[in-house]
């Protein structure tokens, strides 16, 4: 019975162009990678690689337990304190992933009886946290002023510094004003904005000079511009302490490897100093926008550029065609994005060269012309 259901589900996904398969993203097969979130190219940096080697030479490979039992090591504390100090906030708390961090934030706030107002485009981890906690929430999209008015006290707004699929950037200056006027707390998922926006790459909250009173929690994923894995939530002491007490995805997870934390600390310090890489990235974004005229790209001034094809089959076919030319550029399809946004998600990294962008665009144009 269950086997029949599994086979049926697989057949339906294949028929709809939504079946997903693992891709071994090796550099010898795909010399050009336009799907990586490694915006500053730090995972390739020899200094980061040496730091990981030193970390595994100095520390145990695993932590041996959860952060609340025996897994919390001095190097974890060093990483938390370095992040908090650089951001100018009270405290920071390490999580195993950005997904786990968002689950923890939402479950903790839901347990306090908060009402949520979320941008329609927030990450799946936020939606899953809301569903698992049974929280009361409303979504907004270009109608924030209407949706935020008349709500009960204890309302929390959740948005992202840069949205992961289309590169959209909210105006947090306006959002902060609206939240203050309606006694609403703002929480920012900085997964894709950290390292890219703001002074020293400290994200959207820093770009808009928002204090920890205005944004008491911000989530930073280490798997994007940091080029690693894991996450940290930083902000006001009482909010971070509440996460320590109540976030089940933190309490019941094994702590991050101390060896990994040592490497991440080196990567974090390099990220803070990577203004040259950020300038290079901005130049690449500007050039990409020049050479994409006439193609159905969503407007974006970020490393995330979305080619909208409106059909999962077309998206998958184009991704496969690029793959045969040694270019990894994965299709994004429903339900991750709405039907109109089925297409390619092109991600620019600081190590890309202008000629890499030119080659990618030439192949995209040739393949789209062959469809006609």
Q: Do you know the CATH architecture of the largest domain?
A: 3-Layer(aba) Sandwich
The overall average pLDDT, rounded, is 94
Report the radius of gyration as a whole number of Å.
21 Å
Instruction: Output the strand order for the largest sheet.
Output: 2-8-7-6-5-3-4
Q: Please, how many helices? A: 14
Question: CATH top level of the largest domain?
Answer: Alpha Beta
Low-confidence runs of at least 5 consecutive residues: none
**What count of domains describes the coordinates?**
2
N-to-C SSE series? HEHHEHEHEHEHEHEEHHHHEHEEEH
**Percent of residues in helices:** 40-55%
Short description:
It contains 14 helices and twelve strands. The protein has 372 residues and is of the alpha/beta class.
Explain this structure.
- By secondary structure, the protein is an alpha/beta fold.
- It has 2 domains: 18-40 and 275-371, Aspartate Aminotransferase, domain 1, CATH 3.90.1150; 46-272, Type I PLP-dependent aspartate aminotransferase-like (Major domain) (Aspartate Aminotransferase, domain 2, 3-Layer(aba) Sandwich), CATH 3.40.640.
- Helices cover 44% and strands 14% of the residues.
- It contains 14 helices and 12 strands.
- A 7-stranded mixed beta sheet has the order 2-8-7-6-5-3-4, with helices on both faces. The protein has a 3-stranded antiparallel beta sheet with strand order 9-12-11. A two-stranded parallel sheet has the order 1-10.
- The longest helix is centred in the last third of the chain and has 18 residues, at 354-371.
